[in-house]
Design a protein that fits this description.
Elements: E1 2-4, H1 17-22, H2 26-30, E2 65-74, E3 80-89, E4 94-97, E5 103-105, E6 108-110, E7 113-117, E8 128-139, E9 142-154, E10 160-161, E11 164-166, E12 171-180, E13 186-196, E14 200-201, E15 210-213, E16 224-231, E17 238-244, E18 249-255, E19 260-266, E20 274-283, E21 286-291, E22 295-296, E23 305-309, E24 314-315, E25 320-329, E26 332-333, E27 336-344, H3 358-361, E28 402-409, E29 415-421, E30 427-437, E31 442-451, E32 455-460, E33 465-466, E34 470-479, E35 485-493, E36 496-504, E37 508-516, E38 527-528, E39 546-547, E40 554-555
């Protein structure tokens, strides 16, 4: 027999539950989430198609529980047969019929509860019922409960008891009831009683306050942290001053000198990367505390300056690039291990660089990690896929956002070089460098590389042409050089081509191509309009009467990209 505290005998069962039960073994029953009262299945042979068995029953927490009896049997072929029966287990021979909630009028609540027998469902007169009013409230975010009032009631001839309480203080309230049957077995119940005022109770304001004021400016070992304690505590009140660094805690006494008490704390190397000041005292039953934020303590002698220089101006996709790296500490060349990466700037619009500034966090709890994040799925050859565009220029295919991820060791002169090939994606690349010397001096820097092409080409054309349609396509070209000249451009699709002169003014120009579709259904190709250069494409095989452009526009012979 299975038992769960939140089962509803009248609820809609899972339609697959019976099927799942039929496929489980008795061993699975004993290990499932159900609380089985009899973990050893009762084996009883049927007589004239009937079988009987007995199971021990009990209800948890002295409250009615929904349960079900699960019966399984095997036929002569060894097949399982499954059946179940729902029932309610009662902890005693009586039960309490509760309302959903009590009736509240002002600060007073009243409820009506009936005592009835489980067998026969008859009202029970003369039954003693204990009723408690439970108050729930919160003090500074912590939940508290207390018994606000108690009553002992006796059920009338109809089995009713009517507890009534005044709500003494602010909070939310419930009524808990309990009764015993003739055998001493207990049954309990609970119902919502109401609320008075706010359930949150706040502590009275403190009479004594304190504030620690310090400027959060960077400080260095050998200097002092100067702070002021502002308080209304009387002069002469003792306090405990705590100076907390990452790996050290110093406690020392402090005495209030007046409304403002100056504090000076010397700093050393163990104070890095920062300290926090706290003062605490207890005065007339009140705990008075004050603290500062973490005050940074920096070590410039542990900073490595990195200089990364590369070619200026706009670079071409796929170009080989050499970066010069230089590491300097305290104005002198410093050998250091430098990590370098070049990542497309657009990626940082999606997520910030997760790597911290090593100079700020080197002395903290850090874990060196590296991430490569890309929006492209790279094929096994490590490139971006794609291919050539027919007779035109090859498509750009190496579209990696991560252009460089490498380490380099600078020499005694603090210099080194790194050479790598740029991807073919266009845009800005952020070059980040972080250096670590043998003396645990660290530093970082950042620079940019710009990748672009001299030409930008855009084609605007109809999406579909049906038989007999005429249309136009426009080819726009932008030359970064901004020159004035005339070039020949060709638009080619499906074997048919048109060539037109394109005049650039200040590096910009647009040319129109006239298009037409055949009058009769044919293959999915466009046809040059009458008079256009290029002639008619061959082939009139049957096909859908529509045209969808394929291929790539290309610059005509003699042009220089």
């Amino acid at each position: 027999m299975g038992q769960q505290s939140n089962l509803n005998p009248q609820g809609q069962d899972d339609p697959l539950a019976e099927l799942r039960q039929e496929t489980q073994s008795a061993a699975w029953w004993s290990g499932s989430d159900y609380s089985y009262l009899d973990r050893k299945p009762a084996l009883t042979r049927s007589v004239d198609g009937r079988a009987s068995f007995s199971l021990p029953t009990s209800a948890l927490k002295n409250a009615p529980q929904a349960a079900r009896i699960i019966v399984r049997a095997k036929d002569e072929y060894g097949r399982d047969v499954y059946a179940e029966h729902w029932l309610t287990l009662y902890p005693a021979g009586i039960r309490l019929v509760l309302q959903d909630w009590a009736e509240q009028v002002g600060d007073r609540v009243a409820a009506a509860v009936q005592v009835r027998s489980v067998t026969g469902d008859q009202p029970q007169a003369g039954r003693r019922v204990q009723a408690q009013l439970i108050r729930t409230f919160y003090v500074e975010g912590q939940q508290r409960t207390e018994v606000a009032a108690e009553q002992t009631l006796t059920s009338d001839a109809a089995g009713w008891v009517r507890p009534s309480f005044a709500l003494p203080r602010d909070g939310s309230y419930t009524i808990k009831l309990s009764a015993q049957d003739a055998s001493g077995r207990q049954v309990t119940g609970e119902l919502w009683a109401g609320q008075r005022g706010a359930a949150y109770v706040y502590a009275p304001p403190q009479r004594y306050q304190a504030e620690l004021v310090a400027q959060p400016l960077p400080r260095h070992p050998g200097e002092q942290v100067r702070a002021e304690l502002k308080t209304n505590l009387p002069a002469g009140t003792p306090l405990l001053l705590e100076i907390a660094a990452e790996d050290r805690l110093i406690r020392q006494p402090l005495t209030v000198r007046g409304p403002v008490t100056p504090i000076a704390v010397p700093l050393d190397a163990a104070s890095t990367p920062g300290v926090r000041l706290d003062v605490t005292t207890t005065y007339q039953g009140e705990v008075v505390r004050a603290s500062t934020a973490v005050l940074p303590v920096v070590r410039d002698d542990r900073r490595v300056e990195i200089r990364v220089t590369g070619p200026s101006g706009k670079l071409r996709p796929g170009e080989r690039v050499t970066l010069d790296v230089e590491t300097v500490q305290s104005g002198q060349p410093q050998p250091a291990l430098v990590t370098l990466n070049a990542v497309q700037e657009a990626l940082y619009a999606v997520a910030e660089d997760p790597a911290p500034d090593p100079w700020r966090l080197f002395w903290g709890v850090t874990s060196p990690q590296a991430w490569q994040v890309t929006s492209y799925d790279l094929p096994p050859d490590g490139r971006g896929g794609g291919g050539a565009g027919g007779d035109g220029a090859p498509l750009r295919s190496d579209l990696r956002e991560l252009a460089l991820f490498d380490t380099v060791q600078t020499g005694a002169d603090g210099r080194a070089q790194v050479t790598f090939t740029l991807p073919e994606a266009l845009g800005e690349y952020r070059v980040s460098a972080r250096a670590f010397s043998g003396q645990t001096a660290v530093g970082q820097t950042r620079s940019e590389l710009t990748v672009g092409l001299p030409y930008a080409v855009r084609l605007s054309r109809p999406r579909v042409l049906t038989a007999g349609d005429r249309g136009m396509a426009y080819l726009s070209v932008q030359d970064e050089a901004g020159s004035d000249r005339t070039e020949q451009v060709t638009l080619e699709v499906g074997g048919a081509a048109q060539t037109q002169p394109l005049t650039l003014r200040a590096g910009r120009g647009t040319v129109r191509f006239d298009l037409s579709a055949p009058e009769q259904p044919g293959p999915s190709r466009w046809w040059p309009a009458p008079g256009a250069t290029g002639g008619r494409a061959a082939g009139d095989a049957a096909g859908p009467p529509s045209w969808q452009p394929r291929g790539q526009p290309r610059l005509g012979p003699g042009t220089t990209p």
